[in-house]
Each structure stands twice: as C-alpha cells, then as structure tokens.
Write a structure and sequence with these properties.
5-stranded mixed β-sheet; two-stranded antiparallel ribbon; Glutaredoxin
C-alpha cells in the first residue's frame, strides 16, 4: 500500500513538473483565484511584479503597439490612471511583439505607470502558436485584469469594449465600483 502511494505521489510530481511556467495570459484562467506569481522585466531590465502592491487593487493592461484596439483603449487607461492612480496600482504589459519593438513603443508612449515586456518569443517558447490560436480569447488583446487588494483576480475582459452602437467605452470604473473603489 505504501509503495503504491509513493509511486502515485512520484507520478503526480513528475506530471506537475511538465507544466509550462505561468504567463501573464494565465490571469485569464485565474478569475476567482490568486493571480499566479509573475515578475516580468521592464524595458530597462529591472523586475516588475505583476500582482502589484499588497493591500491595494491592481489593474493589469496587456497591449501591443501594432494593435489598433489597444491604441484605442489607451486614452481610457490614461484617464483611469489620472482618476484612480492614487488608489489602485496600474501595470502595463507590452505583449505579442518582439522585445525591441516593445521597448521602442513603451519609450514613445511615455506611460505614467510601470510597464513590463512579455515578448512574443517568450510566449512562443512556452506555448506553441497553434495552442495559442486554439485557446480562443485567452491570447486576444487588449486584455484587462483587475485584482483585488488580496491579489485575487476578480475580473478579466478581452478586446475593446463597445456599446450597441459600436462606440468604445471604458468598463474599468464599473468593475472598480464592484470592488468598492469609486
């Protein structure tokens, strides 16, 4: 009996060892659970913890310079930072482009909050492009995530939010209100 349990435990450990490292896109799968521990490099190479500051909600915005809807969402993100930046942590992550392009776009944009880089090469090394395509909305950008003050992912949304008339609108204030941030 003991040998069977030991063999089962060893098998489970081996299976767990083959899971790829979490990516920033795994926040999509973590709604209702603590965010995976992720630290990504800033353009200067210094580390940026994606979970933000303990005790403070964190808004995470995934974007790329070539993404039209991402660029359309940026004014909302900037306005939200101006309104809520003292009460929540903002983290941007440039994704799905090569590291050099990401660094250049971040430098041009002059974001008022910290931004990390998650280059496409890193994602492709962890998750095959075919698996990314098969995953549906998980790898769609812009992608937004709101973590509560305890680091639990409470809300995730992908793509630019549009009303029935097709006009883009900002959903972050609605989700912040659900967390008690007005």
């Amino acid at each position: 009996m003991f040998r069977r349990l030991a063999a089962l435990a060893a098998s489970i450990a081996l299976l767990g060892a083959h899971h790829p490292a979490p990516t920033v896109f795994d926040l999509s799968d973590a709604v209702g659970r603590p965010a995976p521990a992720l630290t990504l490099p800033r353009p200067d190479g210094s580390p940026l913890a994606i979970a933000g500051v303990p005790g403070k909600p964190t808004y995470v915005f995934l974007f790329a310079s070539w993404c039209g809807p991402c660029q359309e969402a940026l004014p909302f993100v900037r306005d939200d930072y101006a309104k809520y930046g003292d009460r929540i942590t903002f983290v941007g992550v440039d994704v799905l482009e090569d590291a050099a392009a990401a660094q250049a776009s971040i430098a041009r944009a002059g974001f008022p909050f910290p931004v990390a880089v998650f280059p496409i090469e890193r994602l492709d090394a962890l998750i095959s492009p075919d698996a990314q395509l098969a995953a549906g909305a998980k790898y769609k950008i812009p992608a937004d995530f709101l973590l509560d003050a305890h680091g639990v992912v409470r809300f995730a949304w992908h793509g630019l939010a549009v009303d029935r008339g097709g006009a883009a609108f900002d959903v972050l204030p609605h989700y912040l209100a659900k967390l008690g941030v007005e």
